[in-house]
Amino acid sequence: MSGQMDHANLFDDARSRLEEVFDAIGVQGDARERLRQPSLSLQVSVPVRMDDGSLRVFPGWRVQYNNILGPAKGGIRFHPEVSQEEVTTLSFWMAVKCAVVDLPYGGGKGGVKVDPKQLSKLELERLARGYVRAIADIMGPDRDIPAPDVNTNATVMGWMADEFDHLARGKVPAAITGKPPALGGSLGRVAATGRGALHVLDLWAARERRKPEETTVAIQGFGNAAYHFARLAHERGYRIVAVSDSKGAIYSREGLDPDPIMEQKTHNQRLHDMVYCDDSVCIADDVEKLERDELLTLEVDVLALAALENQIHEDNVDQVKARAVLEIANGPVTSQADERLEKRGVPVLPDVLANTGGVIVSYYEWVQNRNGERWAEENVNARLAERLERQSQLIFERAEREEISYRKAAYRQGIERIAEAIQLRGNCQDSE
Ligand code: NAD
């Protein structure tokens, strides 16, 4: 079998971790059954009138893994490889993640199988609006609250939020998070995933008595999550020696400054008012160019994975020379690769903790929208730091006490909270 899984195995792989946790913490009966599959899975077809007058129909999905702790919550992905299997798995990870950081949410995820970079801006807007019309019946501030993910950003969320308002015949800002601030988005949301990942790295580094300026970092990806992480980590003193994107990678032993790289990479995008950036990090001057996946095998202190799932798998895990792995993307390390890293003593700061900054600030956006409030950015960032510190320390301490990996500790923490809620709801519930 190839080490890099296709989506057909993705959910099985995720579920195998779940079964281990059930056994480890003694989850039985109702909770075990309920947590094994999603509670709602909707497949839609989104017709889009193209600029040349033709009609194209794009397949899409919205999956609500559960809404045991609160409404389903999770992003929407536009990508040519999106599948129902992938969306289901991502919704499962969202359910675990929200519980790990104690948010009153279940898990959800959405996706459309499309190469959005092939669409004009107006075609993209029609697709975003069409997708919302297709899933509107299962959305809402108390039911399911979408947010951005790969290839969907604040601009796309703004169109989606506007469409939902039209359908609802009123303003429902809490129905979607990650909106532009002018449409009720929270200050601090754009950088929140990267900022959160940096907090988790900082907290771990402090426990290990490791100073930022003595720590080299390679980052896979240079999109929303990766760029803000890179920018803030650089400010904090970490040495970012390499970054990559889908087209290639760059390296500098002395360290890279992410801001001028982003300036250069997005020059054309700004000039032509494009939603996506066509250029690569490889456009940067005075840096060494690497093959894209060479970045994964660099000898660095921290390998930060911030692109897509399944990047470290059975076939390449033995080439990973990093001393620690930070999962900013969802599911970037397969379970087999994870076991190998654990055996080699390479700590992995897991996605269900390390990338929660985005959903935490999405939660703050939802709270602000529901209460008609606007919080200052410092206030948002301070609350994010405080929550992550509290929840991360619980996981670090649990991992130490039970002599298990950070991932196992985080899963135990999250699944215990969900299982307790299922039990407390009684024995006669037949629906959520
Ligand atoms: P994005 O679309 O902004 O960026 C994705 C980046 O990955 C791009 O730079 C792209 O070029 C790069 N990439 C794709 N394939 C690659 C490859 N094979 N090698 C190197 N780089 C590659 O997406 P994003 O929002 O930054 O999301 C990235 C990851 O973080 C996803 O797994 C997403 O689910 C996760 N995540 C994002 C958020 C968020 O708030 N945006 C929150 C939590 C988790």
Automatic annotation (TrEMBL):
The active site is at 109 (proton donor). Keywords: NAD, Nucleotide-binding, Oxidoreductase. Residues 186-426 form the Glutamate/phenylalanine/leucine/valine/L-tryptophan dehydrogenase C-terminal domain. It catalyses: L-glutamate + NADP(+) + H2O = 2-oxoglutarate + NH4(+) + NADPH + H(+). Substrate binds at residues 73, 97, 362. Gene3D superfamilies: Leucine Dehydrogenase, chain A, domain 1 (3.40.50.10860), NAD(P)-binding Rossmann-like Domain (3.40.50.720). The keyword NAD applies. Pfam families: ELFV_dehydrog, ELFV_dehydrog_N. One of its GO terms (biological process) is L-glutamate catabolic process. The record marks 149 as: Important for catalysis. NAD(+) binds at residues 193, 224. The keyword Ion transport does not apply. CDD domains: NAD_bind_1_Glu_DH (cd01076). One of its GO terms (molecular function) is glutamate dehydrogenase (NAD+) activity. Belongs to the Glu/Leu/Phe/Val dehydrogenases family. Catalyzes the reversible oxidative deamination of glutamate to alpha-ketoglutarate and ammonia. This is Glutamate dehydrogenase. It comes from Billgrantia tianxiuensis.
